[in-house]
Design brief:
Blueprint lengths: L16 E4 L1 E2 L19 E2 L2 H14 L5 E5 L8 H14 L5 E5 L2 H6 L2 H9 L2 E9 L3 H6 L6 H13 L3 E8 L7 H15 L3 E6 L7 H7 L8 H13 L6 E4 L10 E4 L3 H14 L14
Parallel strand pairs: 1-4, 4-5, 5-6, 6-7, 7-8, 8-9
Antiparallel strand pairs: 2-3, 9-10
Amino acid sequence: MVFAGEIIRPPSEAESLIIVVTTGCSHNKCTFCRNTISKEKFGIRSFDEIRVDIDEAAGYLKGVKRVFFAGRDSLITPFHKLEEIFLYINHKFPTIERIGMYANVKSILMKKPDELKTLKELGLGIVYIGVETGDDELLKKIRKGVNSEKIIRASKKVSAAGIMKSVMIVLGLSGIEGSRSHAKKTSAILNSIDPEYASALSLLLVPGTPLYLDWEGGAFNACDKYQILEELYYIMSGLDLTDCFFSSNHASNYLPIRGSVPGDKERLLGLLENAVETRDDSLLRPEYLRAL
């Protein structure tokens, strides 16, 4: 199998068969993302290349239940090509239960409702969406390319097709000055989206990225670890979700927490409150162990 480009996947896809569909990023402008300084260009692999990988995997893997399409935005792939890939995966792996992929807001809005429903019928069970923040000013500042209204509209379009959503937010993205606004508006957008899964990542300043250069030049005042935990506390305090599994178990985070919201909300808030109040570093992941 050919693992072209940088392979990224959510923690929840650890046991999935990884198939590379796209390389690079179709947007590639976010100020905090290391891809903005990468030489890897965006591309969609040919069906023939993907078919070779599927055939090879089918030769030694039996009973595959989950497949994950590697690439920062596999949904940007034209529908007719995605349909071809889905059909072939179903043919080679009759035990398949779910296919997952990253999807940016623009690619979701580009797809027709019946196209998303067809992909659902062929096994698309979950899409991972980088929301980052609900603050429109911050979305513009980080050059996300969309506003909160489009994020919400795309999320509802996914739900209408019967596909689960796993959304990601980034703690510390606003810096110290805008932290409270970031928290309040991120709670609000999560409530509007009402995702089945949500995860919080913590900002890591990657050398060479525009945001890193702002920090280096004094234009960006980064939050410290306890300010980041306090931000997460305020985000969680404002959540009013139907049934969401919320986690901060990504390697970038200082305090891994996980649980259902609303069921475990008070417990999670208690863990965050204790960490902020005691400032006990032994409870937190050391800085040298944080990673993207």
